[in-house]
Fold:
Amino acid sequence: MTTTDRRDDIDAIKALKYRYLRCVDLRLWDELAQTLAPDVSASYGKRLSYTGRDQVVDGLKGQMTDDVITEHQAHHPEIEVDGDTATGRWYLQDRVIVPAFDTMIFGGAFYEDTYARIDGRWMIASTGYKRTYEAMIDLKDVPSFTLTDNHLAPATAE
Structure:
């Protein structure tokens, strides 16, 4: 049976993961850093691995430029709390649109996270995912595709 304190911890960890994903998609790098333990490790698929808060933030910043649109959704959390540490498994659905290359990538994966309570608040100690699939669409093959809003793109003079 889950105690009230453990339910509070699970709710806090859920909010932490959602905040992490929101910060990635909105490019809120300073706020993203606040979700990460100082010695965090991160592995995103087969190509991207980072160690340490600064390296994770800088690495993501390098990947998520203003001309790339991203959407990350995590669902179905399985969280186990053990004192001041916890583990979490999440189902990830993501989409990346790169208008300059007429490309959309989407896929699914499972995140495996660890968390640590540091100075009274939960932080991500490690995070990473393994893909279940990844698909790519050449947007020139979808003549009806239009992109009408990208709040992250720099404003252009008209």
